[in-house]
Design goal:
Dehydroquinate synthase-like, alpha domain, two-stranded antiparallel ribbon, homodimer, 8 strands, 6-stranded parallel β-sheet
Chain lengths: ~375, ~375
Amino acid sequence: MDNFVCYNPTKVVFGKGTIKELATLTPKGKILLIYGGGSIKKNGVYTQVMETLKGSEVFEFSGIEANPHYETCMRCVKYIKEKGITFLLAVGGGSVIDATKFIASAVYFEGANPWDILEKRGRNITKAMPFASVLTLPATGSEMDRAAVITKWVTKEKRDMSSDLCYPVFSILDPETTYTLPQRQITNGIVDSFTHVMEQYLTYPVRNQIADRFAESILISLIEEADNVASNPHDYDTRANLMWCATLALNGLIACGVPQDWSTHMIGHELTALHGLDHGVTLSIVLPGTMNVMRDEKGDKILQYGQRVFGIIEGSKEQRITQAIEKTQEFFHKIGSPIYLSEVGLDQSCIAPIVKRMKDRGWALGERGTITPDKVKAILTDRLGK
Amino acid sequence: MDNFVCYNPTKVVFGKGTIKELATLTPKGKILLIYGGGSIKKNGVYTQVMETLKGSEVFEFSGIEANPHYETCMRCVKYIKEKGITFLLAVGGGSVIDATKFIASAVYFEGANPWDILEKRGRNITKAMPFASVLTLPATGSEMDRAAVITKWVTKEKRDMSSDLCYPVFSILDPETTYTLPQRQITNGIVDSFTHVMEQYLTYPVRNQIADRFAESILISLIEEADNVASNPHDYDTRANLMWCATLALNGLIACGVPQDWSTHMIGHELTALHGLDHGVTLSIVLPGTMNVMRDEKGDKILQYGQRVFGIIEGSKEQRITQAIEKTQEFFHKIGSPIYLSEVGLDQSCIAPIVKRMKDRGWALGERGTITPDKVKAILTDRLGK
């Protein structure tokens, strides 16, 4: 087992009717509600939040995009300074919470150019405004982690940052807020959570029983509940399990004492930045390619995954690895997420620009740093489809 | 799934050589080292800690007992006030950390009688001195939870307390410190961890996939590693897995969104208070009795436990429940922990005083409050043995 630090001070308040807890959890001061395109006004969450905060001084900033833009965040920073805001409340999904993390850090950033926060991946954050979240879309885990992903629209660069100063003070997770989500967002959320687990699990064995079994627990639960949510979308327990799975997939727990990969995410980020694909869609396309191209290095863990998650025990080592990859693809396809670039209208021509970006940055990805730009080319080529 | 709050601000620093991190983690001020009977002087941990804290103003208070005494804790409180201590560092196992939690609270207690903290189970704690721990015995989970158990020696009363103010600021877990533990303490620790999980798992189903699978993950890992530690006591990964299992068994994670029992612990506490049995020994004796007497109410979860942890799938419902109880007993016996009162020299005569205590306090235990004093009598009678 590898050495690790386990630390996560976010208080998660989970369950039916928990939005009303905002009344006691939110500190005094000038509160800024940060949200997206207005879906929270349609599903009643906005009204619930505003009712609960009656009596507080509440300001609003809306219009945070999916894959939140640096430019939009900087407009929000300006607004916060103008109004003398003291506490941020993100209401929405991962994009809104990620934006809020960057905004909270950028407000106090003393350098000349706040994009530097993303260039340095958050290591230069020295202070952040306290913030909390009301989660309405289970997917990114941002509600209980220290990371964010921000896109500079003008140059189409998507970068991540993280800092111990970027944990939400609290996050409210009411599974009932997810009943009205469109199927596409549910599917994206399941793929995102599943891939978060795989990035921390599918590396090489270090005899960490707990990290492995916890990871497999989340994978199995996601597969089971994905079936349930399709057949019975208003089942509370199904929604609750999916929501809690998404949080646990990326709150640091299953990362304790194991190596991590994240190459599928890094490659996927480029597909989103250059072609505007949904984050979840990029992951279901790239992950099976990463598994196939890295099948030797990752073989031991792919075999364990195949056996414990899908019950694959027959055939040669190579056959079982192939079966595990096929089962993963079947799962993504079954829930309606593409597995080939051709399914989203991309072809061979999309590959070279991504490989060039990797080369320009000198990136070597993966748990061993062996996923070179050439390997990225092989992974994307594996994903061309028919 | 039940509603829940998930909150745990303790920073766990886990792995080989992590005691040296004390140098950066410990705040400035007057540090009080709190420890037990001196085993940390034999295994080198005391020297490592003192070396690391060289340059700080360090005081010492030793002599914390197993099942720490209220009277000893109060002597420590007096010492803290005399010396103007500002930070407590518990070095040892659960008893030392539990004592430190009570001491940290009692220092600031404003009522006439600090025993009141235990009478009110910690609800009246309004302030506590910050403290941290260096764990040397994986068992109680105290290094990452908000609870403590203290015994008033003069009246033989064993009581628990808990408070959000009683989380360690940080805890250092170096599995190498556990190599020199006597087998008896290893066994007690495994039984304690196992039973912590069972108290939160073996109730009734609420369709919480994650809590169930995480609990089963810890149970399976404990069973596997108990075998390994017997055959290869100096294997680092085995020690690391046992240590991390013990922490996760009681840090609040697997309690999220499920009912909890704790009757086995409450009955066990009386056996320790009245007869001085090791805590772990009381648990391996009582737990199979709780399972057997409550087999109807707990039937669904006992069946799930039998299937997922021990692979029991054949036979009638009643037969499979019986098999699951037998497998649990076999596991405890195999690692050297007794399962009958007769094995520790107790007989029928020990039962009535415990039942009377339960009656006097008006206690009804268990996840549904259905474990009445009569049921406690039945559980202990089930455990008489030959």
